[in-house]
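Before a computer can learn anything about folding, someone has to put a protein's shape into writing. The three-dimensional part falls to structure tokens, numbers that each stand for a local backbone shape. The protein below has been through that process, and both of its lines are reproduced in full.
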Amino acid sequence: MRDARRSLTAALTVLLLAGCSGGEPQPPPAKPAYDLPAREVRPDETALHLPTALNGETEFSLIGLAAGLPSLTGSHTEFDAKGQFVRIRLVVTGKGVSGILFDTRRQQLLTDSGAVIAVDNQAMTIKRQPDKFELGRGVRVEFDLYFDLPKEAKPLVLRAFGGPTLTDMKNVTGTDIKLG
């Protein structure tokens, strides 16, 4: 009888202690984050608040959009659009174990009519935006992409290409990121 009481007491103690473990599960502690200062959006631009997208080992964060720009001014020239310039401000981050050669000119813009528009090389040069660069692990690079769309076209999707990876050496398909 004494052994039965001890077993019962031990079992009740375990149940009581399990019941006193704090009730609801606690959320995991927040991961430390860098405090990056907020910056004003450029006068002709709309801030984008989109989730990040991943293509291969490259993370894309689209942060700004300007459409309907009739011309661009660089340090040496003013350049008129054939239709309208669209500028996308983005941040790319290397997420892989090694670096990749990132090609800004490979990115594409899809319009409401289904057209696929390549980056405008002359606009990128006039605005002194990068062409190709080594994107290392954990490296973040922020820049603009310029496209020349027909005047009536609406930009809908950025087709983003992060670069070759060990499992996708050609990075053929890209990742579609809706602009709104």
Observations:
- The longest helix spans residues 2-19.
